[in-house]
Amino acid sequence: MKILVLGAGVIGVTTAYFLNRSGHEVLVVDRQPGAGLETSFANGGQISASHSAPWSSPASPLLMLKWLGRRDAPLLWRLRADPQQWLWGLRFLANCLPARYTANTEHNLALGLYSRSLMRDIRLKAGIRYDERTQGILQIFRDTRLFDNVARNAEILTRLGCKELVLDRDGCFAVEPALRDTGSGIVGGVYAPDDETGDAHIFTRELARASAERGVTYAYGVNVDRVEAEDGRIARIVTDQGSFTADAYVMAFGSYSQLLLRPLKVNPRIFPTKGYSVTIPVDGRKGAPTVSITDIDHRIVYSRLGDRLRVAGTAEFAGYDTGLREDRARVILNHAQKQFPNGGDFDRPEFWTGLRPLTPDGMPVIGTTRYPNLYLNTGHGTLGWTLAAGSGQALADLIDGEIPAIDLTKFSVDRF
Ligand SMILES: Cc1cc2nc3c(=O)[nH]c(=O)nc-3n(C[C@H](O)[C@H](O)[C@H](O)COP(=O)(O)OP(=O)(O)OC[C@H]3O[C@@H](n4cnc5c(N)ncnc54)[C@H](O)[C@@H]3O)c2cc1C
Question: Of 292, 279, 297, 271, which Cα lies nearest the Cα of 134?
């Protein structure tokens, strides 16, 4: 079958890789000059099955109220007269109910564990390297109550297949000695030893290269204006360089999927959520962590990518604006410098923003649509790098008429 994948981010490229492996003719289109140049470019680097819990959690409404109006808040809700944003916000709140939160976490976790196991397979079969590390992820806490809550959940996650170890402060220092000098406020940590990290951009670029060698065609610099349907099927995509046709189409445009799908009356309820990252050259300094750290109090993550330290965080609900506000980026930089003063050259930071394609329940949208030849693989929000491999393989299985290893009905667009 000829399949057209819309988008060469980490989701589109991974999907193309698996579709090619099962024998399809695959064409990927993207407006950028290469693969992985939008949201997949400089994310937090964590492949974190242990972080499967969505942002829509029972604790979120109170936290969001607490952060309202604070310029350095990890989460900024910019007040706009956009009914879509308000409707999305209400759905987000509905998903903060404990029962929904637990179910959403479990579905993401199943997909996350499946993805993690496939990453090892991709490394071997595609023969790619991407500054990957398999040293786990350590969440650190300065608030005893929060720590106790998460520590209780660690037992549940371990029972569900995601090993988590609860550590006291010295245990955290033993896992990551770089915390020792400035970690006096830490009360404990939760360590997921099987989680991984890596550079999502290098992975996407290298997997695109490896899959192109196996026959996948990449059409870069092509801007898709619309997707056209005829007689209940997708007939073509219309671009600034003419029309393209295929037997089937996979939508993987990240946050922009929403805009292209709306005229087709397919609504994955994606809202773009801007995040920031800062990348610092380690430059031979001895104080940079090698184990990935999630700093819960400041809502930022650290990943060591080769000789760079990537620090990422913040969420801004500001529509499709990708503009970089230096004061927001510097909040992240300052936290990093305080935590790891000898971790790199803080005078040479690279700032970046990207739009997380976030759904109100924090789960991706994967599967079929009302059009028999249109499939979705989008809306991965805060977890796109973590869930990419499993999402790509499961969708390829579904298209092939196989039973996917993950129950995709939970991720269907019909849930909205
Ligand atoms: C600050 C930050 C930190 C993050 N940290 C992590 C992390 O640690 N771990 C994790 O798992 N996830 C993380 N994420 C989330 C993750 O990066 C995303 O979920 C993931 O990159 C989404 O991938 P995607 O392929 O869906 O979207 P994208 O990478 O945005 O790809 C979509 C592609 O579609 C193309 N496109 C869009 N519209 C058009 C059009 N009209 N015509 C042609 N091409 C088009 C774009 O050019 C783009 O290449 C983070 C995100 C941010 C912002």
Answer: 292
Distance (Å, whole) CA 52 – CA 113: 10
Q: Is 74 in the pocket of ligand 1 (CB under 6 A)?
A: no
Cα separation, 270 vs 389, in Å, equals 20
Query: pLDDT (tens digit, 9 = 90+) per residue, 353-392?
Result: 999 999 999 999 999 999 999 999 999 999 999 999 999 9
For 263, other C-beta atoms within 10 Å of its C-beta total 11
What is the number of domains present in the chain? 2
Contact between 367 and 398 under an 8 Å Cβ cutoff? The reply is yes
Q: Ligand 1 centre from 291 Cα, in Å?
A: 24
Q: What is the pLDDT of residues 83-134, one digit of tens each?
A: 888 899 999 999 999 999 999 999 999 999 999 999 999 999 999 999 999 9
Q: Can you give the pLDDT at residue 312?
A: 98
Establish whether residue 112 lines the binding site of ligand 1, counting it when its CB lies within 6 angstroms of any ligand atom.
no
Cross-strand bridge partners of residue 6: 29, 251
Which of the listed residues 262, 309, 317, 382 should we mutate to test ligand 1's pocket, taking the one with most ligand atoms within 8 A of CB?
382
Prediction pTM value: 0.97
Is the C-beta atom of 208 inside 6 A of ligand 1?
Answer: no
How does DSSP assign 357-401, residue by residue? EE-TTS--EEEE-SSTTEEEEE--GGGHHHHHHHHHHHHHHHHTT
Binding site membership of 316 for ligand 1 (Cβ less than 6 Å): no
Residue 142 lies in a domain: yes
The string of pLDDT tens digits covering residues 156-170 is 899 999 999 999 999
Residues 247 and 327 in one domain: no
> Do the domain assignments include residue 118?
no
Structural domain containing residue 392? 2-40+202-269+362-415
Distance 37 CA to ligand 1 centre (A): 8
Q: Is 89 exposed, middle or buried (0-12, 13-18, 19+ CB in 10 A)?
A: middle
Give yes or no: residues 296 and 408 share one domain: no
Q: What is the CATH number of the domain that holds 164?
A: 3.30.9.10
